[in-house]
Prior knowledge:
The chain is built from seven helices and ten strands. The strands form two sheets. The protein has a six-stranded antiparallel β-sheet with strand order 1-2-5-4-3-6. By secondary structure, the chain is an alpha+beta fold. It has helices at residues 14-20, 29-40, 175-186, 191-194, 199-202, 209-222, 232-255; strands spanning 42-46, 53-57, 72-80, 83-90, 97-103, 115-120, 138-143, 149-154, 159-164, 169-172. Helix 3 crosses helix 6 and helix 6 packs antiparallel against helix 7. 30% of the residues lie in helices and 24% in strands.
Amino acid sequence: MGEDNNTYPRPLTEKEWMLVEWILPENREGYSKYRALLKSLQVIGSGRWGSGDFILGVPGDTPDITGPMERIFANGIIEAEEGKITVSVHEYVAGQLEVQIANLQDESIPDDLTIKRKATYSVWKPGEGCPFCGGGVREISINRDDPVAVLAICINDKSIWVYDDSDGVNYPIPGTNYYNELMLHKKIKDPVIALQSKNLFTMLGDYSDSDLRQAFVRYNKTWHRISIQPGTESNGDKKEKLKDSLGSIFKGKKGE
């Protein structure tokens, strides 16, 4: 960030807090817990990518950068006259939390920003447009009963996330991993289709809600994100099959 404070341990600077805190809305339980972590933990060192990438933990700990980065918990963009700034907070694991702040147009981030727009998935709720592009979002019900869970897919922004009403968090879902599960569920082996994850967005209309739901159920078994209600998998299939059966019956009657 240009003027990084490299003396550790230290608390987040006022500037760092300002750039990060808005992607963790305090009126949502899951994000509020991470806000508390940012206040209670100390910056104990740099992350893998140097400037703007730092690890928070307990004073005396050594940043663990030996393995892959933890999954992103929350992220957002700040569009300003001085540049486009990306912000991400990774999952809190083993007492450490990684934060990344980067200006895509310049290494430095001025103290005074002329902000034109901010966007984050953290504030999204079912029924709303995509927080980034403003376009429509395809919603697939995962948990129908309280607390509900909804999978959201934006074609324009090429992004996937799942909303969990139990804690108010929108968990980002990596497109490639999710698409792999969709291909396995559909038993599609044609490499032209199966090996191109971008096809999820260009061919989204080819897949039913049941297909997309089952792909998430499969994904969630390996990469746990939410607690799926018992019966979600079978009930979803039954409702889709009943809908298809009724459609076939009425279609047959029209042709008689």
